[in-house]
Amino acid sequence: MCIRRLTERDSMGRRTPSGERRPAPVTWRAQPARVARAGFTLLELMVVMALIVVLAGMAMASYRNAVTLGQEAVLKEDLFRMKDAIDQYYADKNKYPANLQALVSDGYLRAIPEDPFTRSSSTWQEVPAEPDANNVSAEIGVYDVKSGSDRISSQGVPYNEW
Prior knowledge:
Layout: E1 6-9, E2 15-17, H1 33-36, H2 42-93, H3 100-105, E3 125-128, E4 142-146
Antiparallel strand pairs: 1-2, 3-4
C-alpha cells in the first residue's frame, strides 16, 4: 500500500509530497545546432576582410604619396645646393664650371648628389651657359642643372623642368 500525497508543486512544476523538495533530475540533452556553435559566420568574416582590404589600400596610397613628396623635397634641396655651388664657383673664379665634377674637385661640393628619381648621380642634365660676348675665347661652362627624370611631379610639372 502506497499513499501518495501530492499537494504542492515546486518551482519547476513537479509535484512533491508536502514539505519535501527534490532536486531537479540531471538530464543530458543535445543542444540544438544553432546554439551549440560558437564563432563567426562566413559573412561576418568576409565583411571584416573587406574592411581590412579597404583600410590597407588607403594606407598604401598614403604611403606612396608620402614617399613621392619626400623624394620631391630631396630633389629640390639637391638642385638648390648644386645651383648655389655653381653660383659660388662663378663668384670666385668669374667663370662657370666645365661640368659638375669640377664642383667636386674644387671643393664646392663633397660629392655629386644622387637624383632621387633616377637613383643615379650621372643623370643630371647640365644646362650650358650662354657664350660671353665680351670674352669669345672663354670656355662655356655649366650654368644650371636639372633632373634627368622624365616623370611628372605632384604639381603636374616634369622634374626635368625644375
